[in-house]
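Retry 2 of 3 after timeout on previous attempt. Resubmitting C-alpha coordinates to design endpoint.
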Protein backbone atom coordinates (compact mmCIF):
# COMPACT_ATOMS: atom_id res chain seq x y z
CA UNK A 1 0.00 0.00 0.00
CA UNK A 2 1.25 3.45 -0.87
CA UNK A 3 1.28 6.24 1.70
CA UNK A 4 0.22 9.76 0.80
CA UNK A 5 0.47 12.52 3.43
CA UNK A 6 -2.80 14.34 3.99
CA UNK A 7 -1.63 17.90 4.63
CA UNK A 8 -0.59 21.19 3.06
CA UNK A 9 2.08 21.73 5.73
CA UNK A 10 5.31 21.78 3.72
CA UNK A 11 7.59 21.42 6.76
CA UNK A 12 5.82 18.18 7.71
CA UNK A 13 5.96 16.88 4.12
CA UNK A 14 9.69 17.66 3.77
CA UNK A 15 10.52 15.94 7.04
CA UNK A 16 8.40 12.84 6.34
CA UNK A 17 9.56 12.59 2.70
CA UNK A 18 13.16 12.27 3.96
CA UNK A 19 12.21 8.91 5.52
CA UNK A 20 11.32 7.42 2.13
CA UNK A 21 7.80 6.37 3.12
CA UNK A 22 5.92 9.15 1.31
CA UNK A 23 4.52 8.23 -2.11
CA UNK A 24 2.41 11.34 -2.62
CA UNK A 25 0.38 14.11 -0.97
CA UNK A 26 -3.28 15.05 -0.76
CA UNK A 27 -4.61 18.50 0.00
CA UNK A 28 -8.13 19.89 0.15
CA UNK A 29 -9.48 23.45 0.49
CA UNK A 30 -9.71 23.08 4.29
CA UNK A 31 -6.06 21.98 4.55
CA UNK A 32 -4.93 24.84 2.28
CA UNK A 33 -6.91 27.31 4.43
CA UNK A 34 -5.26 25.84 7.56
CA UNK A 35 -1.79 26.37 6.02
CA UNK A 36 -2.50 30.07 5.48
CA UNK A 37 -0.50 29.80 2.23
CA UNK A 38 -1.25 30.81 -1.36
CA UNK A 39 -2.77 27.73 -3.06
CA UNK A 40 -0.68 27.76 -6.25
CA UNK A 41 2.54 28.45 -4.37
CA UNK A 42 2.02 25.70 -1.83
CA UNK A 43 1.09 23.10 -4.48
CA UNK A 44 4.18 24.05 -6.50
CA UNK A 45 6.41 23.67 -3.44
CA UNK A 46 4.90 20.30 -2.52
CA UNK A 47 5.24 19.00 -6.10
CA UNK A 48 8.95 19.79 -6.02
CA UNK A 49 9.36 17.81 -2.77
CA UNK A 50 7.73 14.53 -3.77
CA UNK A 51 7.86 12.57 -7.02
CA UNK A 52 4.41 11.02 -6.63
CA UNK A 53 0.93 12.45 -7.15
CA UNK A 54 -0.03 15.67 -5.35
CA UNK A 55 -3.79 16.22 -5.18
CA UNK A 56 -5.07 19.77 -5.66
CA UNK A 57 -8.82 20.28 -5.44
CA UNK A 58 -10.99 22.43 -7.72
CA UNK A 59 -13.48 24.75 -6.04
CA UNK A 60 -15.85 25.40 -8.97
CA UNK A 61 -19.07 23.39 -8.96
CA UNK A 62 -20.00 23.29 -12.65
CA UNK A 63 -18.18 20.97 -15.01
CA UNK A 64 -16.77 23.52 -17.45
CA UNK A 65 -15.34 25.68 -14.69
CA UNK A 66 -13.93 22.60 -12.92
CA UNK A 67 -12.15 21.61 -16.13
CA UNK A 68 -10.78 25.13 -16.55
CA UNK A 69 -9.53 25.19 -12.94
CA UNK A 70 -8.18 21.66 -13.28
CA UNK A 71 -6.23 22.50 -16.43
CA UNK A 72 -4.73 25.56 -14.71
CA UNK A 73 -3.73 23.55 -11.63
CA UNK A 74 -2.33 20.72 -13.79
CA UNK A 75 0.11 23.20 -15.36
CA UNK A 76 1.80 23.70 -11.96
CA UNK A 77 3.71 20.40 -12.28
CA UNK A 78 3.54 17.03 -14.01
CA UNK A 79 2.68 15.24 -10.75
CA UNK A 80 -0.47 17.23 -9.95
CA UNK A 81 -3.63 15.14 -9.61
CA UNK A 82 -6.84 17.12 -9.89
CA UNK A 83 -9.40 16.49 -7.18
CA UNK A 84 -13.05 16.81 -8.13
CA UNK A 85 -16.12 16.16 -5.96
CA UNK A 86 -18.39 13.18 -6.50
CA UNK A 87 -21.18 15.04 -8.32
CA UNK A 88 -22.43 14.66 -11.89
CA UNK A 89 -20.48 17.80 -12.82
CA UNK A 90 -17.45 16.35 -11.06
CA UNK A 91 -17.75 13.17 -13.12
CA UNK A 92 -18.00 15.17 -16.36
CA UNK A 93 -14.87 17.09 -15.36
CA UNK A 94 -13.18 13.80 -14.41
CA UNK A 95 -13.86 12.36 -17.85
CA UNK A 96 -12.61 15.47 -19.68
CA UNK A 97 -9.48 15.86 -17.57
CA UNK A 98 -8.54 12.17 -17.56
CA UNK A 99 -9.03 11.93 -21.32
CA UNK A 100 -6.60 14.84 -21.62
CA UNK A 101 -3.98 12.83 -19.73
CA UNK A 102 -4.39 14.45 -16.30
CA UNK A 103 -4.58 12.32 -13.14
CA UNK A 104 -7.94 12.76 -11.40
CA UNK A 105 -8.81 12.03 -7.77
CA UNK A 106 -12.57 11.84 -7.22
CA UNK A 107 -13.23 12.87 -3.64
CA UNK A 108 -16.02 12.81 -1.05
CA UNK A 109 -16.95 9.19 -1.80
CA UNK A 110 -19.35 7.59 0.69
CA UNK A 111 -20.76 4.59 -1.22
CA UNK A 112 -19.62 1.74 -3.45
CA UNK A 113 -22.05 2.92 -6.13
CA UNK A 114 -20.38 6.34 -6.17
CA UNK A 115 -17.00 4.60 -6.49
CA UNK A 116 -18.29 2.61 -9.46
CA UNK A 117 -19.45 5.81 -11.18
CA UNK A 118 -16.08 7.49 -10.60
CA UNK A 119 -14.20 4.52 -12.04
CA UNK A 120 -16.37 4.55 -15.15
CA UNK A 121 -15.69 8.29 -15.54
CA UNK A 122 -11.95 7.52 -15.70
CA UNK A 123 -10.83 8.42 -12.18
CA UNK A 124 -7.20 7.64 -11.39
CA UNK A 125 -8.06 7.58 -7.66
CA UNK A 126 -11.27 7.25 -5.69
CA UNK A 127 -11.24 8.75 -2.19
CA UNK A 128 -13.63 6.98 0.20
CA UNK A 129 -13.83 8.92 3.51
CA UNK A 130 -13.52 6.44 6.38
CA UNK A 131 -13.52 8.78 9.38
CA UNK A 132 -16.52 10.80 8.30
CA UNK A 133 -18.57 7.58 7.94
CA UNK A 134 -17.45 6.51 11.44
CA UNK A 135 -18.56 9.95 12.65
CA UNK A 136 -22.17 9.22 11.63
CA UNK A 137 -22.20 5.78 13.26
CA UNK A 138 -21.32 3.69 10.20
CA UNK A 139 -18.19 1.56 9.76
CA UNK A 140 -16.05 3.40 7.22
CA UNK A 141 -13.89 0.33 6.70
CA UNK A 142 -16.85 -1.56 5.23
CA UNK A 143 -16.79 0.92 2.36
CA UNK A 144 -13.13 0.23 1.57
CA UNK A 145 -13.83 -3.53 1.60
CA UNK A 146 -16.92 -3.12 -0.62
CA UNK A 147 -15.12 -0.98 -3.20
CA UNK A 148 -12.21 -3.45 -3.31
CA UNK A 149 -14.67 -6.26 -4.15
CA UNK A 150 -16.53 -4.18 -6.75
CA UNK A 151 -13.36 -3.05 -8.54
CA UNK A 152 -11.88 -6.56 -8.45
CA UNK A 153 -15.03 -7.90 -10.11
CA UNK A 154 -14.30 -5.96 -13.31
CA UNK A 155 -10.95 -6.02 -15.12
CA UNK A 156 -11.88 -2.86 -17.00
CA UNK A 157 -11.85 -0.79 -13.78
CA UNK A 158 -8.33 0.38 -13.00
CA UNK A 159 -9.10 3.17 -10.53
CA UNK A 160 -6.94 3.06 -7.39
CA UNK A 161 -8.62 3.04 -3.98
CA UNK A 162 -7.22 5.92 -1.93
CA UNK A 163 -8.43 5.45 1.65
CA UNK A 164 -9.06 8.96 3.03
CA UNK A 165 -10.34 10.67 6.16
CA UNK A 166 -8.04 8.42 8.18
CA UNK A 167 -8.07 9.23 11.89
CA UNK A 168 -6.00 6.50 13.60
CA UNK A 169 -3.48 3.68 13.14
CA UNK A 170 -6.21 1.02 13.00
CA UNK A 171 -7.71 2.74 9.94
CA UNK A 172 -4.28 2.34 8.29
CA UNK A 173 -3.91 -1.31 9.31
CA UNK A 174 -7.40 -2.21 8.17
CA UNK A 175 -7.01 -0.31 4.88
CA UNK A 176 -3.91 -2.38 4.12
CA UNK A 177 -5.70 -5.61 5.07
CA UNK A 178 -8.65 -4.64 2.85
CA UNK A 179 -6.33 -4.05 -0.12
CA UNK A 180 -6.58 -0.29 -0.47
CA UNK A 181 -4.03 0.85 -3.06
CA UNK A 182 -3.18 4.01 -1.13
CA UNK A 183 -3.88 5.47 2.30
CA UNK A 184 -3.67 9.22 2.73
CA UNK A 185 -2.62 9.78 6.31
CA UNK A 186 -2.40 12.94 8.44
CA UNK A 187 1.21 13.57 9.59
CA UNK A 188 0.51 12.87 13.26
CA UNK A 189 -1.11 9.51 12.44
CA UNK A 190 1.74 8.58 10.07
CA UNK A 191 4.31 9.41 12.75
CA UNK A 192 2.42 7.25 15.26
CA UNK A 193 2.62 4.14 13.03
CA UNK A 194 6.21 3.47 14.09
CA UNK A 195 5.46 3.31 17.80
CA UNK A 196 5.82 0.00 19.65
CA UNK A 197 6.81 -0.34 23.30
CA UNK A 198 8.92 -3.43 22.58
CA UNK A 199 10.93 -1.50 19.98
CA UNK A 200 11.66 1.20 22.57
CA UNK A 201 12.49 -1.31 25.30
CA UNK A 202 14.61 -3.44 22.99
CA UNK A 203 16.62 -0.47 21.80
CA UNK A 204 17.20 0.75 25.36
CA UNK A 205 18.48 -2.72 26.35
CA UNK A 206 20.80 -2.97 23.33
CA UNK A 207 22.25 0.47 24.04
CA UNK A 208 22.73 -0.29 27.73
CA UNK A 209 24.60 -3.52 26.91
CA UNK A 210 26.69 -1.75 24.28
CA UNK A 211 27.67 0.92 26.81
CA UNK A 212 29.05 -1.83 29.06
CA UNK A 213 31.46 -2.95 26.31
CA UNK A 214 33.16 0.45 26.30
CA UNK A 215 33.48 0.18 22.50
CA UNK A 216 32.72 2.73 19.77
CA UNK A 217 31.94 1.91 16.12
CA UNK A 218 33.41 5.17 14.77
C1 LIG B 1 -8.09 13.74 1.58
O1 LIG B 1 -7.98 13.63 0.40
C2 LIG B 1 -9.33 14.14 2.26
O2 LIG B 1 -9.73 15.41 1.85
C3 LIG B 1 -9.13 14.06 3.75
O3 LIG B 1 -8.58 12.80 4.08
C4 LIG B 1 -10.39 14.33 4.55
O4 LIG B 1 -10.13 14.09 5.91
P1 LIG B 1 -11.09 14.59 7.07
O5 LIG B 1 -12.39 13.86 6.97
O6 LIG B 1 -10.36 14.26 8.34
O7 LIG B 1 -11.27 16.07 6.88
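Retry 2 succeeded. Sequence:
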Amino acid sequence: MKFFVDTADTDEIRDLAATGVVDGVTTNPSLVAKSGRDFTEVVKEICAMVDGPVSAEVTATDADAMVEEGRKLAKIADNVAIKVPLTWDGLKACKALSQGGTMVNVTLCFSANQALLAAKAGATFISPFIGRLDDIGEDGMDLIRDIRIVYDNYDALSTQILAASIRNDDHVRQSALAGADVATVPPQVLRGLIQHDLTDKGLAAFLADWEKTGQSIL
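Attempt log closed. The mean pLDDT is 98.
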